[in-house]
Structures are given as C-alpha cells and as structure tokens.
Amino acid sequence: MLTEVIATRYVTPLREGGSLPGIVEADDLGTYVMKFTGAGQGRKTLVAEVICGELGRRLGLRVPRLVAMDLDPVIGLGEPDQEVQELLKASGGLNLGMDFLPGSIGFDPLAYEVGPAEAGQVVWFDALINNVDRSWRNPNMMVWHGDLWLIDHGATMIWQHNWPTAQAAAAKPYNASDHVLARFQPDIGAAARELAPQVTEDLLTEVAAQVPDVWLTDEPGFDSPDGLRRAYVEALLPRAATIHERITLEAPTKDRPSQAPGWLTDHVRPWPHPTKKDQQMQQDGGAK
Ligand SMILES: Nc1ncnc2c1ncn2[C@@H]1O[C@H](COP(=O)(O)OP(=O)(O)OP(=O)(O)O)[C@@H](O)[C@H]1O
Ligand SMILES: [Mg+2]
C-alpha cells in the first residue's frame, strides 16, 4: 500500500481544483495536495489517481509522489470557510496526498515546447488509462524545474464506473484530438514500442496493490478488495498491447464542450463555491 502519513495542518484550499483539493502538511514534515474522500467525485477518483499515478511513474513519466493521508477532521476546526469545514468533516480516515511541487506553474502549450518523443509517451499513456481530462481546456500538467509533471488522474478508466461492461468499455478507442499535447506531433508508435511491453501483469498487480483496502470495499459484484484490484489489472492489461492502433488524432474541437464527463466538470465552478447553506437558502427562496 501507499506510504501512510498523518495530516497535521490544513494550510489552504487550492482554488483551481473542482474537487476542492487543499494544501495540507503531514507528520513526515511533507507538504501535500490533499484530495478528499468526502468530495463530490467520490472515492473512485482517488483509486484512479493511485493506479494511474503509480503506473505512470513506473513507466518513467514524472508524477509527484503519492501517499495515503490519515485525516482527523479536528484539524479543520479553526477553518473559517464553511465548505472546507464540511469537506474535512466528511473525510475522516484515509485520503490521498500528492507531493506539492512548490513554485510549479500550470502547463501552457503556447509557452512551453514538448518534443515528439515525450508528447508521444504522454498521449499513449493517457490513451491506455483513458484519460479524458488532459485537454487544451484543462492540461492537468505542471512545469517544475523546467520539466513536465503529470497530475490529476481522477477522470480516467471510465470502465470502473460500470464493472459488468468493463471489458467492452476498455476495448474502446481513444480520441486524442483535444489532448493538450496533440499539437506537438506525438510519436505514438515509438511510445508504444517502448512502454507497452513494460505494462505486464506483475507491474499492474504491484500498482493495484498500492490502493488502500478501504477504498475498495463494498463494491457490488466483488467480495474482496483483491478481487476488485484484479478487475483493474484485467481491464488495463489487454488495452496496453493494442491501444496505439486505436488513437484518433484529428483537428482539435474549438466549440464543442469538453469530453470530460459531467460529474467532473459540473464541479468546476468559480470560487467561492456555494456552500450547502447557500444552496439551502436558494432552494428555500425558490420554494417561496
Ligand atoms: N502536486 C502539485 N503541486 C503543485 N500544484 C498542484 C499539484 N497538484 C495540483 N496542483 C494545483 O492544483 C490544481 C488543482 O489540482 P487537480 O487538477 O489535481 O484538482 P481537481 O480538483 O481534480 O481539478 P479539476 O478537476 O478542476 O482539474 C491544479 O490545476 C494545480 O494548479
Ligand atoms: Mg485538474
């Protein structure tokens, strides 16, 4: 399992993120971007973060280190923002921490050049994990010390939301036309030759073992966390061998909405997000 640390101080909310991630310090003296089990997107986005982040790093892509962060909601008692308070209260126990990259800036395709080899690796990897959230609208990459770092793998592996149809869903093609690196002539063939043979059953099993048991319990159709881990392995393994043949790269869409699913984008609202109390007041007002 991921290394476990204890959250010691909630520093500040990260206002860019739809799931209201926060910067949190831990007992190992590290500073992390914390993603909460109590956020609207649910714990499956955290499972996806772990499986895809740990897989990406093992394939040689830059992904900040991940930890499991134990949260006692009491650390948020002095937090003035009601939405943050509610989130912390709903997230006692294990949450996800990603090493905070101090001084990093969000990737801008007009300001930073990526070579075809690296672009090919990132696009191939996103095709493998079916990442619908690395578009020019929302790159989900950081530039740190002059290098590209991949963050935010919550909107991947769509098949995990419906296991009975997972094998069929994982066999589907990947449309990379809106991918933020599509403009850099990604060399997908070279990436597939180098990376696909590394995605073995052993590697995927090791990666799935990093997910904390508590995020894998009570899934309908599975009687143990290990049974569910196996399902993640079985969806990714055959996809790795052939996905490069099914990647579409056309002109990016300009006016069509993002491919990201509604459950993800609906949470992207301008700050401050309305709190439950605001929503209740709106409903009460509307009912009158
Ligand atoms: N490890 C990190 N180091 C520095 N900044 C980070 C890190 N992780 C995330 N951020 C910053 O926080 C923002 C939100 O993070 P992230 O995209 O993971 O959250 P999210 O809630 O899934 O967002 P969304 O769904 O809106 O893309 C990022 O756009 C980035 O600016
Ligand atoms: Mg993001």
Describe the protein in words.
The chain has helices at 43-58, 82-89, 116-129, 166-170, 188-195, 201-208, 225-242, 262-265, 276-287, and strands at residues 4-13, 22-26, 31-35, 66-71, 93-99, 105-106, 141-144, 147-150, 174-175, 247-248. With 288 residues, it is an alpha+beta fold. The chain folds into two domains: 4-99; 105-258, no CATH class. The strands form three sheets. The protein has a five-stranded mixed β-barrel. The chain has a three-stranded antiparallel β-sheet with strand order 6-7-8, with no helix packed on it. α1 packs across α6 and α3 packs across α5. It is globular. The model is unreliable at 266-273 (pLDDT under 50). The structure holds adenosine-5'-triphosphate (ATP) and magnesium ion.
Q: Cα-atom Rg, whole angstroms?
A: 19 Å
Q: Tell me the span between the first and last alpha carbons.
A: 52 Å
Helicity range: 25-40%
User: Which structural class do you get from the secondary structure elements?
Assistant: alpha+beta
Compact description:
The chain has helices at residues 43-58, 82-89, 116-129, 166-170, 188-195, 201-208, 225-242, 262-265, 276-287, and strands spanning 4-13, 22-26, 31-35, 66-71, 93-99, 105-106, 141-144, 147-150, 174-175, 247-248. With 288 residues, the chain is α+β, with helices and mostly antiparallel strands.
List keywords for this structure.
288 residues, alpha+beta, 2 domains, three-stranded antiparallel beta sheet, 16% strand, binds magnesium ion
